[in-house]
């Protein structure tokens, strides 16, 4: 039986695993990166990038439809489904090949194509029979779509993010189960591309948001483009002609609808099954997941680290990459490890309007400033005046703590707020910065002014508070 001895073994060559390997090797460790496919990361192949490519197509169609609002008459756009899907795949393949080149450029002996499972905290068994002995092991095995029982035996009528981008043509109609970021981003874009879309979720709110004005504004905006059935328990059956029938009860009434395809977007689960974690010596919770420290990514006091979607804490790309880097450094220097400060939360959903969550959720010591983009000058000029943004600050001192944003270009506003929170800024500090006119950023001033007024933060003498042209009574 072949045996490989290394300092750091990494299970999974996704974003987190590649970052971990890079960092551990840079720190002088002998590394081994194990993956059965080396498919070029979830992000590039079936996640962030192909979904944003499809969204770009949907938004192009939407802008054509909206042109009439500006006096630019174009008529209904003709969507060439195979061409849309071919562009998605062409660019997606280009992104994937970039990652694959990075992998091909790794030094000889660093990669091994295999599936790994634990034998002990420092020993892995590969499915080709190789034993790997490592001083430290990093679990970077990612996550996979969860398919709830009613949808699991329906064959190829059910699609997920892993199969959607392989379709040769757009379907005529699609039922989407799950109104989280994945379901909503794709549902809206498919509707914009002329697909008849209905979204089902057992929750009353969209995108995991709490009840409140941002959520209500998001729901109102998306309902104008999509059919929604919330607080329902959908079931489905496959029909003889290969289509699917979804049935559910809504407001006490039994209902049914037929679709060509059913997209299941009901969350993702960490790929921990099959790792034989019970042999890793780690303490596991009821779901079989190990406890870990968010600053070090270490599982207990063991030589095992867990990063990216595999730990389920912050299942987004920049966090996977950062966690990989932290764990790579710590695994290389194990048992001498360091705790790293983590980023302020920054999460974006690329629907239109965008939704973003920044920093901490509000609590009893939070003061809330709010802006409704329905009345915001630049948003009105561009015909994108939808959404409500809330900015959170400490009631005692006005220090910014978080935000829930629904609005045009909220992806950019969220970055500004996140960076200011990381700088320790107060609402008054941010208000005292230049705001160009007319911009969407000016909308934030409305919310910041409310915070300052409410807690009596001094406003700079040089600032004029008059309403700006285009803004109507929004503060
Ligand atoms: C449709 C979609 C859209 C998304 N959009 C965004 C977005 O816009 N922005 C954003 O920030 N995030 C987005 N995400 C989330 C983001 O893609 C993930 O958080 C990120 O890709 C996770 O990276 P990872 O390295 O943890 O996992 P992955 O990239 O999935 O890597 C895991 C690797 O582990 C391997 N593996 C699994 N089991 C084993 C084993 N036993 N042995 C060896 N190898 C194994 C797999 O083959 C895989 O290569 C999106 C996700 C999806 C699904
Ligand atoms: N822009 C982004 O960053 C982005 C985009 C897409 C996906 N992602 C990532 O992908 C992951 C998965 O996203 P997601 O939206 O699938 O997960 P999610 O858990 O956020 O949402 C799943 C939704 O499905 C609903 N649901 C679950 N089971 C159901 C059932 N049986 N019937 C009806 N509804 C049901 C839930 O109530 C929830 O609203 C997340 O970790 C997310 O971070 C990120």
From TrEMBL:
Q: Which cysteines are joined by disulfide bonds?
A: 43-48
* Keyword annotations of the record: FAD, Flavoprotein, NAD, Nucleotide-binding, Oxidoreductase
Pfam families per the record? Pyr_redox_2, Pyr_redox_dim
Q: Which cofactor does it need?
A: FAD
EC number(s) of the enzyme?
1.8.1.4
Region of interest called Disordered, as start-end residue ranges on this chain: 456-475
Binding of FAD, residues = 52, 309
Binding-site list for NAD(+): 178-185, 267
Q: Where is the FAD/NAD(P)-binding domain?
A: 7-323
- Give the active-site positions: 437 (proton acceptor)
The free-text cofactor remark is: Binds 1 FAD per subunit.
One GO molecular function term of this record is: flavin adenine dinucleotide binding
Pyridine nucleotide-disulphide oxidoreductase dimerisation domain span = 348-447
Tell me the protein family, please.
Belongs to the class-I pyridine nucleotide-disulfide oxidoreductase family.
Q: What is this protein called?
A: Dihydrolipoyl dehydrogenase
Give the organism the record lists. Henriciella barbarensis
């Amino acid at each position: 039986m072949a045996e490989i001895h290394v300092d750091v073994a990494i299970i999974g060559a996704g974003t987190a695993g590649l970052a971990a390997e890079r960092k551990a090797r840079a720190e002088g460790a002998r590394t081994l990166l194990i993956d059965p496919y080396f498919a070029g990361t979830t992000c590039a192949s079936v996640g962030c990038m192909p979904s944003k490519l499809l969204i770009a197509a949907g938004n192009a169609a939407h802008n054509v439809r909206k042109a009439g609002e500006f006096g630019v008459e174009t008529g209904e756009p003709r969507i060439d489904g195979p061409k849309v899907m071919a562009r998605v795949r062409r660019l997606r393949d280009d992104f994937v090949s970039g990652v694959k080149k990075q992998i091909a450029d790794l030094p000889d002996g660093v990669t091994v194509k295999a599936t790994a499972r634990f034998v002990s905290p420092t020993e892995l068994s590969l499915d080709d029979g190789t034993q790997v002995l490592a001083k430290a092991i990093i679990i970077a095995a990612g996550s996979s779509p969860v398919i709830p029982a009613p949808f699991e035996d329906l064959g190829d009528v059910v699609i997920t993010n892993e199969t959607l981008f392989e379709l040769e043509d757009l379907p005529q109609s699609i039922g989407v189960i799950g109104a989280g970021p994945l379901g909503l981003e794709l549902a809206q874009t498919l509707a914009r591309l002329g697909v008849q879309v209905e979204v089902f979720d057992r929750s009353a709110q969209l995108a995991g948001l709490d009840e409140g004005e941002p959520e209500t504004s998001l729901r109102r905006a998306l309902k104008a483009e999509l059919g929604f059935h919330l607080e329902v328990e959908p079931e489905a059956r496959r029909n003889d002609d290969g289509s699917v029938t979804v049935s559910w009860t809504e407001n006490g009434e039994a209902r049914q609808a037929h679709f060509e395809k059913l997209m299941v977007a009901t969350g993702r689960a960490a790929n921990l099954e099959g790792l034989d974690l019970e042999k890793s010596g780690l303490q596991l919770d009821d779901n079989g997941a190990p406890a870990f420290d968010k600053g070090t990514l270490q599982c207990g006091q063991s030589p095992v680290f867990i990063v990216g979607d595999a730990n389920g804490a912050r299942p987004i790309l920049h966090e996977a990459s950062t966690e990989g880097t932290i764990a790579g450094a710590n695994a290389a220097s194990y048992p001498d490890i360091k705790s790293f400060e983590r980023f302020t939360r920054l999460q974006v959903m690329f629907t239109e309007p965008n939704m973003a969550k920044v920093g901490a959720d509000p609590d009893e010591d939070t003061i809330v400033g709010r802006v409704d983009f329905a009345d915001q000058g630049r948003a009105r000029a561009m015909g994108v005046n939808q959404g409500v943004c809330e900015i959170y600050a400490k009631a005692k001192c006005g220090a910014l703590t978080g935000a829930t944003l629904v609005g045009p270009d909220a992806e950019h506003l969220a970055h500004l707020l996140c960076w200011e929170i990381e700088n320790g800024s107060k609402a008054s500090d941010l208000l005292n910065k230049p705001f160009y006119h007319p911009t969407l950023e000016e909308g934030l001033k409305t919310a910041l002014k409310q915070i300052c007024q409410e807690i009596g933060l001094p406003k700079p003498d040089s600032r004029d508070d008059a309403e700006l042209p285009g803004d109507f009574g929004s503060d």
